[in-house]
Design goal:
Layout (H helix, E strand, L loop, with lengths): L3 E7 L13 E6 L2 E5 L5 H7 L9 E3 L11 H10 L4 E7 L3 H8 L9 E7 L3 E3 L8 E6 L7 E6 L3 E4 L1 H6 L5 H9 L1 E3 L5 E3 L4 E4 L3 E5 L6 H7 L4 E5 L7 H7 L4 H11 L3 E5 L10 H9 L5 E4 L5 E3 L7
Parallel strand pairs: 3-4, 4-5, 5-6, 14-15, 15-16, 16-17
Antiparallel strand pairs: 1-2, 1-18, 2-3, 7-8, 8-9, 9-14, 10-13, 11-12
Helix pairs in contact: 6-8, 8-9
């Protein structure tokens, strides 16, 4: 398993089909697991994908339409059954009543502690505690309150082996160099961190579900390595997309192109389209975005692109 990948547990929109389950996306990121929008059937999809509820540290809901949250009861109850001690949950504050109904939908032995972080306002930075990333949410343009999510790894440095070797710095001296910013080499010269390293931008991920085009969409997607975004409609159905608060394939690609995305994942497809229409989503996106385009399928594992080497 890649240390950083998205597992697609469902890729349909309002209505599941024979080949596409309701939404569900599990992001693995350096030992943390973020489950976004678990729709109906997510628990079973996780079994098919070889995943465990112990992989889940966060449940993140974009909004409370059923295809984005009806899997919550099964997931929470399975987490209690399997002995998961605690998890975090983020959801629109305006839907707190729906969260309570889903969280306590049936009788079960409830042992899990869920740290709830309701989202309110136009932008929220969540408390990620000791996680190796920051997580923010931005309000989107949908008929009900909805948020997109952006995960950012802090910037760091990359050590340059050739520069270290040229200056005779090795072993524990490399660690002291990283911690103190300088070290004395065997020949007595002072070696600085700047001489042996380069700036390493943190990797970034964004998930954008039901929305029309709006400024927060572009802000969430800005410079991300992997963008998972709805493309419910084909471009010829742009009027329907606007009326229902969704994006087309071409609009999703425009976001990726203007935001400088590296890998674009299209998902949340309307049941109105047939399997033979699938290539049209890729074609319409590729006409706008020159980067890597992935049309999501259930149980796909899509890695975050490798870092660019300095």
């Amino acid at each position: 398993m890649s240390a950083r990948e998205i597992v697609v547990l469902g890729s349909a929109s309002a209505v599941p089909t024979r080949t596409r389950n309701h939404n569900g996306y599990l992001l693995h990121w350096d030992g943390q697991g973020l489950l976004f929008d678990p729709g109906e059937g997510t628990q079973r999809q996780m079994i098919h994908a070889g995943l465990s509820v112990h992989d889940i540290d966060w449940i993140c809901l974009t909004h409370f339409h059923g295809d984005h949250c009806l899997g919550v009861p099964g997931i929470v109850q399975r987490m209690s059954r399997d002995g998961v001690a605690e998890a975090n949950a983020a959801f629109p504050a305006s839907g707190a009543l729906y969260w309570e109904r889903l969280r306590h939908a049936t009788i079960f032995h409830d042992t899990i502690r869920i740290r709830e972080q309701p989202l309110g306002g136009s932008a929220v930075e969540l408390d990620t505690a000791d996680a190796p990333f920051t997580l923010t949410a931005r309000r989107l343009d949908h008929p009900v309150e909805a948020y997109g999510y952006r995960l950012v790894e802090p910037d760091g440095i990359t050590m340059l082996p050739d520069e270290l070797a040229a200056r005779g710095v090795h072993g524990l001296a490399i660690r002291r160099l990283r911690e103190d910013g300088q070290v004395t080499a065997p020949d007595g010269t002072v070696v600085t961190l700047g001489e042996c390293s380069v700036h390493r931008p943190g990797q970034r991920f964004a998930l954008i579900m039901d929305t029309r085009l709006c400024d927060p969409v572009f802000e969430l997607a800005d410079g991300v390595d992997l963008l998972v975004i709805e493309s419910t409609f084909l471009d010829e159905d742009a009027a329907l997309a606007r009326d229902y608060g969704h994006l087309t394939a071409g609009q999703a690609a425009r976001v990726a192109a203007e935001a400088g995305v590296r890998r674009l994942v299209l998902t949340h497809f309307s049941e109105r389209y047939r399997a033979e229409d699938e290539h049209r989503f890729a074609d319409q996106a590729a006409a706008v975005f020159r980067g890597d385009v992935v049309v999501a399928h259930d149980l796909d594992r899509i890695p975050v692109p490798p870092r660019r080497r300095p």
